[in-house]
Write a structure and sequence with these properties.
The protein is of the alpha+beta class. The protein has a domain of 126 residues. The protein is built from 18 helices and 10 strands.
């Protein structure tokens, strides 16, 4: 609710970042004068399972059991509820698949507990049987050229191609870790220690978050070649309810008289519902990323091992599961591509044959923030002018102290950024998001601030309160601050697009 109100407040200010905030689809998607999601219970249930998956103090098996029990209960409620938009035929199909969904949930819980009890071989055997049985239901897609086929890779350090160096050799350093350096490979969500997997993101910003937000890093763009059935086929766990239901709504309205197309749409939505438990089990947010054993990785790691051995699929497409407000609502996706067969040089034969890599760019985050120095000088001058105003004016409003304090905080924060004197990138960038929100709150509360000054001024000061001057101060403050402080500041880093794509 807070974000919906906040978005409405921001509507007149041109806040470009709103596309990264998740909005309740119930508020925005309608059929005629009736809200589709209000009319169909199934849509409401699907919206409820939005991948905000935190296990808290529970072990994974217990958390999944609680979550899946509620999921099954909600689906059963749907069967006996009103769903006029989807209709009886779809609900009958769903009813037929409830036993399968229950079986999937039970198997995932059993696999997790079997692994937890130390029976690793048995856990893998049960998993492979389950994953294979789900093959007809996976939502899959080609990696896609164009808008959804451009991906990015980041590596900490400077790997720019210098004159005289082999471009292909340097670009190989931004590919997956080679077979001969497997001792450098740690355990991640979709890969086990010691075995390479190529992780890519559809935006450099998400890629930076996933890589731990380094201060200095190299980056390149990768384009995945698509040639019919030879393209990389990915199991798609990136669907989120608001996008899925919006698409389903549009598809069905556009094909209301086409029974064949309606059947395909029904199957797509049904497959999403059937495979949700597995997608959820692979998307639980990590409670403690510093742990040597990350229990949230059990199911996704085993699943990726199955994908690696599969002849049907090449990887997984998924949304970020980072437990950070900085990536919440971001539209970008990740893909994980396991190595299936090594070339003699230690790189994957299949992936290198289908992925072209651009020249390498370099970003020094702290140097990039140097571009704000002139604006910071303006903020410093404004702050000093407010101090002078307090010395020379007949009325001294408390609001001036708040603006002065805010300016001082911004100056110190960006001074730390420019000089690189910080250890936790996530903390400082989250702090910048808070600064932006606070600045907007001040700006949108001008009238309240003026009224507060009028109300709380001493009797002999009331006729000296100048509402116009207060509003001018706040307008100037907001204009200066928003030249420096941005919501999702990483989207203002000056990345450069590089060409010269070639396969390595």
């Amino acid at each position: 609710m807070f974000f919906r109100i906040f978005l409405r407040l921001c509507g007149q200010v041109g806040c470009w970042y709103v596309k990264f905030i998740s909005i309740n689809a119930i508020d925005i998607i309608k059929v005629g004068d009736k809200c589709m999601y209000t009319e169909d219970m199934l849509f409401q249930i699907v919206m409820k399972y939005n991948y905000d998956l935190y296990r808290g103090p529970l072990d994974i098996s217990t958390y999944m059991k609680n979550h899946f029990d509620q999921y099954i209960n909600d689906l059963n409620k749907t069967i006996n509820s009103e769903n006029p938009f989807l209709g009886e035929s779809f609900i009958n199909k769903l009813n037929e698949k409830i036993p399968l969904i229950e079986e999937v949930c039970d198997e995932l819980i059993d696999i997790s507990q079997t692994y937890r009890d130390g029976y690793i071989k048995a856990a893998y055997e049960k998993s492979y049987t389950l994953f294979e049985s789900l093959s007809p239901y996976y939502l899959s897609r080609f990696s896609w050229n164009g808008r959804d086929g451009d991906f990015y890779r980041i590596r900490e350090g400077d790997f720019r191609i210098k004159e005289g160096e082999s471009s292909k050799k340097k670009k190989a350093e931004l590919f997956h870790i080679k077979n001969g350096s497997r001792h450098l490979i740690g355990a991640y969500r979709y890969s086990v220690s010691g075995f390479p997997c190529l992780y890519l993101s559809s935006s450099r910003e998400l890629c930076w978050f996933e890589c731990g937000m380094p201060k200095q890093f190299s980056y390149c763009q990768m384009i995945i070649e698509e040639n019919g059935e030879n393209a990389l086929r990915l199991i798609d766990f990136s669907n989120r309810p608001i996008d899925l239901l919006s698409s389903t709504h549009v598809w069905l309205l556009n094909n209301r008289d086409n029974e064949n197309e309606k059947t395909k749409i029904y199957d797509y939505l049904l497959n999403y519902i059937i495979t949700y438990p597995l997608a959820a089990a692979c998307s639980i947010k990590v409670s403690d990323r510093g742990s040597k054993f990350v229990e949230e990785y059990i199911i996704p790691q085993i699943f990726m091992q199955w994908v690696r051995e599969s002849e049907k699929f090449d990887g997984i497409r998924y949304k970020s599961s980072l437990n950070s407000s900085l990536v919440n609502g971001m539209g970008a996706v990740n893909i994980a591509l396991p190595v299936k067969r090594f070339r003699n040089d230690g790189l994957c034969e299949n992936l290198t044959s289908k992925i072209a890599i651009s020249d390498i760019g370099f970003m020094d985050v702290n140097k990039d923030f140097e571009k704000y120095r002139e604006y910071l000088k303006d903020i410093e001058n404004f702050k000093n002018a407010l101090w002078a105003n307090r010395s020379n004016s007949e009325y001294h409003g408390e609001y001036e102290l708040r603006l002065i304090d805010f300016c001082e905080i911004v100056l110190k924060t960006y001074g730390v950024l420019i000089n690189g004197r910080y250890d936790n990138s996530e903390l400082i960038f989250s702090y910048i998001d808070c600064l932006f929100d606070y600045a907007y709150t001040i700006y949108s509360s001008k009238e309240s601030i003026v009224n507060y000054c009028l109300k709380n001024a001493y009797p002999d000061e009331k006729d000296r309160v100048n509402p116009s001057r207060i509003e001018t101060h706040i307008d100037t403050f907001y204009s200066l601050i928003t030249k420096v402080v941005h919501k999702h500041a990483v989207f203002n880093l000056d990345f450069v697009n590089h060409g010269n794509f070639e396969k390595i």
